[in-house]
Structure formats: C-alpha cells, structure tokens
Amino acid sequence: MIVGHGIDLQEISAVAKAYQKQPRFAQKVLTAAEMAIFEGLQGKRQMEFLAGRWSAKEAFSKAMGSGIGKLRFQDMEILVRDNGAPYFAKSPFSGNVFLSISHSADFVQASVILEEIQ
C-alpha cells in the first residue's frame, strides 16, 4: 500500500550559489559515500548531483509527512545501481522506497513514493 508521495523541484543554480558561499553545504547534505561520488564529478555535473540529492531528500521528507527538520539530510543516503538508477541505500522508512530524479536546464525534480510492505 502506498503510504506517502513527495515531490520537490529545485533550481540547480540556487544550490550552486549555496555551495559557492559555503562549501561545507555539500557535507551538510551528502553522506560520506555520496561525498565520494560528488568529489569525483566536475563542473555542472557536480552541481546537478548535489541539487539532485538535495531535492530527493526533500521529496523523501515530504513523503514521510515531516519535512526536513525532524529528518536530517544525513538520515538518508542515495547511491546508484549498476544501471545508473538512483536508490535510497539508507532511510528511516522500513518499506519500499521508489525514487526518480530528473534534470532539465537549471532545474532538478525528484519524486519519492513510499510503499508499506504487507
């Protein structure tokens, strides 16, 4: 049974400005494993990655009904499967988590669906 759905839309340039102003911003949003991926990227792709993780974690918190605040960015970890699909490797939800992240121009959108296991 679907128990939550969250969507988030974020400007990549806004995330890039936050990162340029405070480089520790990435460490606030990303786990150690995510930081390892982030540091292996360059330029626009690096900012798309950071904005995508931000947006996906925001969408997850919306699906949980709590928002960021009760949940911390570090409570969630998004890695990549062999086929390139992102997935929640760590989250406070015990059921299935479905994730989609899309980039277009200066925007990134993430959608998260939470399914209770019966």
From TrEMBL:
It is found in: Cytoplasm. It comes from the Bacteria. This is Holo-[acyl-carrier-protein] synthase. It comes from Streptococcus ferus. Keywords: Cytoplasm, Fatty acid biosynthesis, Fatty acid metabolism, Lipid biosynthesis, Lipid metabolism, Magnesium, Metal-binding, Transferase. The gene is acpS. Residues 6-89 form the 4'-phosphopantetheinyl transferase domain. It catalyses: apo-[ACP] + CoA = holo-[ACP] + adenosine 3',5'-bisphosphate + H(+). Mg(2+) binds at D8, E58. NCBIfam families: acpS, pantethn_trn. GO terms for cellular component: cytoplasm. Transfers the 4'-phosphopantetheine moiety from coenzyme A to a Ser of acyl-carrier-protein. GO terms for biological process: fatty acid biosynthetic process. One of its GO terms (molecular function) is magnesium ion binding. Belongs to the P-Pant transferase superfamily. AcpS family. Its EC number is 2.7.8.7.
